[in-house]
């Protein structure tokens, strides 16, 4: 796995319109792990792609009526089978963290990379997802010198009380063990 012009090579790309310039493109210093499934708890469809590209049809599921107008994105999605989709180049700001704070800094989107795992807070993640996440993280650590293993956090860590993902089902010990 490699990065070329801030895109991972050899994975799917679906550019999201929900992106803008970072205040400082050199300040990529945080990795934020999220989870997402649309509708909640359902996997293996294209609804996440549609949400991140502002194409989610509110008539396809009752839950979508509450979320179809959100303008959100992430840099990367790792699906249940370990395959990846990149929506935003890493030097740009994806809209994944919302109102957030890390070590006294607000607006975490300004300096973070958002990685979504197809999943739910109450469903275990797959071995394929952990293996792919480790490969992605190692590649990012090589490419962006301000990132470190100590600066990998969950969405819940930067938006406590507002967000719970990646949830109790995410095995941080497993991730850290695989990163060694």
Strand and helix layout:
Blueprint (H helix, E strand, L loop, with lengths): L2 E2 L2 E2 L3 E2 L5 E3 L8 E7 L10 H6 L11 H4 L8 E3 L5 E3 L5 E3 L6 E2 L2 E2 L5 E7 L8 H17 L8 E3 H4 L13 H8 L1
Parallel strand pairs: 3-7, 5-11, 5-12, 6-11
Antiparallel strand pairs: 1-2, 4-8, 6-7, 9-10
* Straight-line N-to-C gap: 18 Å
- Tell me roughly what share of residues is in helical segments: 10-25%
State the strand order across the main sheet. Answer: 3-7-6-11-5-12
Task: Note the total helix count.
Answer: 5
The parts where pLDDT drops under 50 for at least 5 residues are none
Question: What is the strand tally?
Answer: 12
What is the average of the pLDDT values?
Answer: 97
Radius of gyration: 15 Å
What is the structural class? alpha/beta
| H and E order | EEEEEHHEEEEEEHEHH
User: Proportion of β residues?
Assistant: 15-25%
The gross shape turns out to be globular
Which sheet architecture does the biggest sheet show? 6 strands, mixed
Describe the fold and architecture.
- The protein has helices spanning 47-52, 64-67, 127-143, 155-158, 172-179, and strands at residues 3-4, 7-8, 12-13, 19-21, 30-36, 76-78, 84-86, 92-94, 101-102, 105-106, 112-118, 152-154.
- Helix 3 (127-143) crosses helix 5.
- The protein is globular.
- The chain has 180 residues and is of the alpha/beta class.
- The model has no long low-confidence stretch (mean pLDDT 97).
- The protein contains 5 helices and 12 strands.
- The strands form 4 sheets. Strands 3-7-6-11-5-12 form a 6-stranded mixed β-sheet. A two-stranded antiparallel sheet has the order 1-2.
């Amino acid at each position: 796995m490699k990065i070329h012009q801030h895109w991972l090579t050899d994975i799917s790309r679906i550019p999201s319109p929900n992106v803008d310039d970072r205040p400082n493109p050199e300040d990529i210093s945080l990795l934020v792990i999220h989870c997402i499934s649309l509708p909640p708890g359902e996997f293996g469809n294209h609804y996440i792609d549609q949400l991140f590209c502002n194409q989610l049809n509110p008539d396809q599921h009752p839950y979508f009526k509450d979320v179809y107008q959100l303008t959100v994105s992430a840099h990367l999605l790792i699906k249940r089978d370990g395959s990846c989709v990149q929506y935003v180049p890493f030097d740009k700001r994806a809209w994944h963290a919302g109102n957030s704070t890390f070590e006294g800094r607000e607006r975490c989107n300004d300096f973070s990379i958002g990685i979504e795992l197809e999943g739910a807070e109450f469903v275990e993640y797959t071995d394929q997802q952990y293996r792919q996440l480790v490969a992605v993280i190692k590649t990012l650590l090589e490419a962006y010198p301000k990132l470190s293993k100590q600066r990998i956090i969950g969405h819940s860590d930067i938006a406590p009380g507002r967000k719970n993902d990646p949830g109790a089902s995410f095995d941080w010990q497993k991730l850290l063990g695989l990163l060694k």
